[in-house]
């Protein structure tokens, strides 16, 4: 991890500039806070069955307070049953009220190192609706049956009162704190993923973390084993929910196309330059399953794969069309993070209806038509903010090192403009390199650093 010493406050002032540039909201309007306070006091009704005696736990980053998911797992013959409790945001937020209207403006929570701009006010997202272990909480519990072959099926969806027994953290959780079948559940999901030819690309992410005292850290952070295993719970629930919605002829789905032929050709060049063994008869997904986040060359290729795709989006159910997510190789939906994504609240409402023999509300069906554009705008903004924060951190980290030479690898090109990854630190930048090819190793001189514009200028060493 590279610590960034920032005595001049360039990072703090730069983050303020990013917030201003992208109009990141500071807090919530008074009428939204007032409505959230009233909503937080709402008492669950008879439809919330009492499940407070069940051993639900949460597993998240240690500092998280907006907890969407709690779970426990039990065996049933050869099957594993996931009881997946999701924050019941729709219980607190009413269509058309000030909290709902503000959420539609935001789309999703925006994260920055110095704080987040939440989708919902803290009275809901970090207290009343969050599945914290300080008392009973209303939730929607999905019962997901996982067969021995790793196929997930939705058995039930009910509103319930649950009580989390523990707030577990990715970086400190012990196996004995988790359900006995937690690891077995993840193994089945991973085996099923490989069997259907899926490959979720999880490259290490550039991350900026506030350390206090005006210091920050910039790093490439591979996912922890606990994170990867925990992700299989959401994957199983979302796959089962997507199938149930599709069969019912309703829903909102996460869709993604694969790389184009031209992008595939660039990826093969990148792999060759990075020294990866990629035989012609092996497809991209099979190669991806052999990659290791901790290997710098593999990490560079994983980043190139992520950029080669067209990106994921949302699509409502359309008669005669099977929504498809290429990376997951399945029909897929988002339903497990309603505190952070607007769309999930409506998907959960639809699942509650179809699982209990009711018609999906007209307001929900109408929302499915509007949400793709709203979520695309929010995701684009999130990506712009994240890139701006990383660019800022890179300039602060490299201040004073002008003239030094850095080893780099070209990961993608656009004419004479090349995207490069430095090999000795977590920096991704652009440089003018005539005739550059993906996978090429180059020595670059740092010609300039501009923290205000968040720009690094590299030039090939002659």
How would you sum up the global shape? globular
C-alpha-based Rg, rounded: 23 Å
Structure annotation, total helices: 12
- Total number of distinct structural domains: 2
Relative helix content: 25-40%
Entry summary:
By secondary structure, the protein is of the alpha+beta class. It is built from 12 helices and 19 strands.
Could you please describe the fold and organization of this structure?
It is a single chain. The chain is of the alpha+beta class. The protein folds into 2 domains: 2-257 and 311-398, no CATH class; 405-460, OB fold (Dihydrolipoamide Acetyltransferase, E2P) (Beta Barrel), CATH 2.40.50. It has 12 helices and 19 strands. The strands form 6 sheets. The protein has a 5-stranded mixed sheet. The chain has a 5-stranded antiparallel sheet with strand order 17-16-15-18-19. A 3-stranded antiparallel sheet has the order 1-12-11, covered by helices on one side. Helix 1 runs antiparallel to helix 12 and helix 11 packs antiparallel against helix 12.
State the main characteristics.
462 residues; OB fold (Dihydrolipoamide Acetyltransferase, E2P); 2 domains; 12 helices
């Amino acid at each position: 991890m590279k610590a960034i010493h920032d005595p001049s406050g360039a990072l703090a002032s730069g983050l303020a500039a990013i917030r201003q540039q992208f109009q990141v909201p500071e807090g919530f309007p008074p009428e939204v806070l007032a409505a959230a306070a009233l909503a937080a006091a709402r008492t669950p009704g008879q439809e919330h069955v009492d499940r407070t005696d069940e051993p639900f736990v949460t597993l998240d980053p240690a500092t998280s307070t907006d907890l969407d998911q709690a779970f426990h797992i039990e065996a049933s013959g050869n099957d594993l049953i996931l009881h997946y409790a999701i924050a019941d945001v729709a219980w607190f937020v009413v269509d058309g009220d000030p909290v709902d209207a503000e959420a539609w403006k935001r789309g999703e929570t925006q994260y920055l190192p110095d704080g987040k701009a939440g989708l919902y006010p803290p009275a809901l997202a970090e207290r009343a609706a969050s599945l914290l272990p300080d008392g009973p909480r209303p939730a929607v519990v999905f019962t997901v049956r996982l067969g021995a072959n790793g196929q997930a099926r939705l058995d039930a969806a009910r509103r319930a009162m649950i009580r989390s027994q523990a707030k577990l953290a990715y970086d400190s959780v012990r196996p004995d704190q988790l359900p006995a079948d937690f690891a077995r559940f993840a193994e089945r999901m991973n085996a099923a993923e490989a069997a259907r030819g899926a490959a979720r690309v999880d490259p290490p992410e550039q991350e900026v973390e506030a350390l206090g005292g005006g210091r920050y850290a910039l790093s490439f952070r591979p996912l922890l084993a606990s994170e990867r295993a925990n992700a299989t719970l959401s994957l199983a629930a979302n796959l089962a929910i997507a199938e149930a919605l599709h069969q019912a002829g309703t829903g909102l789905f996460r869709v993604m196309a694969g790389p184009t032929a031209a992008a595939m050709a660039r990826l093969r060049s990148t792999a060759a330059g990075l020294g990866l063994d990629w035989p012609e008869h092996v497809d991209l997904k099979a190669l991806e399953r052999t990659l290791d986040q901790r290997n710098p060359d593999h990490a560079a290729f994983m980043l190139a794969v992520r950029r080669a795709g067209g990106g994921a989006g949302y699509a409502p159910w359309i008669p005669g069309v099977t929504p498809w997510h290429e990376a997951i190789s399945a029909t897929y939906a988002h339903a497990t993070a309603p505190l952070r994504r607007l769309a999930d609240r409506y998907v959960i409402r639809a699942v509650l209806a179809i699982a209990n023999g009711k018609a999906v509300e007209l307001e929900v069906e109408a929302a499915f038509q509007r949400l793709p554009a709203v979520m695309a705008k929010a995701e684009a903004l999130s990506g712009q903010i994240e890139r701006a924060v990383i660019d800022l951190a890179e300039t602060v980290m490299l201040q004073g090192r002008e003239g030094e030479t850095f080893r780099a690898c070209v990961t993608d090109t656009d004419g004479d403009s090349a995207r490069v990854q430095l090999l000795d630190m977590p920096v991704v930048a652009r440089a003018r390199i005539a005739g550059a090819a993906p996978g090429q190793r180059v020595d670059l001189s740092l010609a300039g650093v501009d923290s205000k514009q968040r720009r690094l200028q590299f030039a090939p060493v002659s």
